[in-house]
């Protein structure tokens, strides 16, 4: 009889439980009961072996002595101590008190009291003294190696930038190798030292040297000049005004470096000056005003020749005339030759420092020379710029002269003529302008070197143009907006297109008697002129002959018999 499925499952579970209990309890029960059967083992047959000694490998027999045996214990090796870095930092100052305006010098020593070498040891700091570079331990130098028991020292110097009562520094030593320090608490140190502010006074006189003797004479003081003094530590700005004798005085100024400036005075120029206040009563300053060059000096600059070839020395003449009421002293010149991308200093001869004196009503000439190089040939000219004064760039006149340097040629110069579209507002040029006659006029000689008429696309091309500086010309109701300088360099061969921007303006006349048809006008040799250009009569006869031929042809066509259709 087959049991139902639930009954079969219960039976299987019961059997599994009984099996597990039997397996677990079997060994326990077996220990309590003796074995039921004893296996019988048959002894092997006894054999005799020859009496031959065999070396024994077994453990020797225990001693027969009745005394006990003792075994000494083997000591285990002691643990080895691990090497470590231990850096100790110390910081000190040279003085117990520092004047606030003086440089501050601090020292640092780093000792390695550990058992391992420290690599790339560096020192850095923060505080109110700057800059501080702890050489040779500053980070910029890469640091040093400090072996056990060794010491490295460094020093740094800076100036106080803030908190002018006390210097405070936080200094730290560290390694870039990331080596752990056995005692990191002594790797940082705070150091302070008190500061003191010292004060002094300053006085001076401003005067105009009317007789050019470099000495203050009665009546030469410049009253009412405003004096501005800035500097000191802490930073200070003070003002004073010169009295009737040109004297001024400022008190309670903190020690330090000062910069001195003056207001203008009619007919005179006072140069800025500087001084260091480091004592309570500074020596008085004397400030000599220079006669103003503008309005008292007339100057011209011109080259001695119209042109200079390669390898020659160009010579320009600088003419100076004193038209003022006092002598002009300490006149010097700074002259440069400009090539558009760089300058070359010219030789100013007598007008070098310390300069010359030009008495009242006197006119003198001075030579300025410069070599003519291959760069000048490439540009086709030399532009000489001179600043003349006492001194130049402060109290001066600016002069300029041009001279031609022949030899360079540009095979082809191309460009695009564009109508202005508010270029001043940053907008790009507008549409091309066609059918406009354009030309190049040499700025030095005034001759026209090239001509063309712009194409429908506004393009123009000049051929075989001598290198030089030109003015770009237009014909018609137009006005040039830029560029004002049209520079043509030797070797230019249409490698880039120039933009010329124009705008509507007054009518510009045609510089040529006969407008060219395009490109540069090349005269045709006599004898090669066509017959049509010799006389108007020849043209009339040819026209009459053409009309007669047309009439005869028409008559022949009309009078010819018509072909009948078949």
Automatic annotation (TrEMBL):
Transmembrane spans: 538-559
Superkingdom classification of source: Bacteria
Family matches, as InterPro entries: Ig-like_fold (IPR013783)
Position of the signal peptide: 1-30
Keywords, ordered alphabetically: Membrane, Signal, Transmembrane, Transmembrane helix
GO terms (BP aspect): carbohydrate metabolic process
Keyword Isomerase: no
Biased composition (Low complexity): 34-57, 64-73
Region (Disordered): 28-80
Keyword Membrane included in the entry's annotation: yes
Listed name of the protein: Uncharacterized protein
Organism: Lentzea fradiae
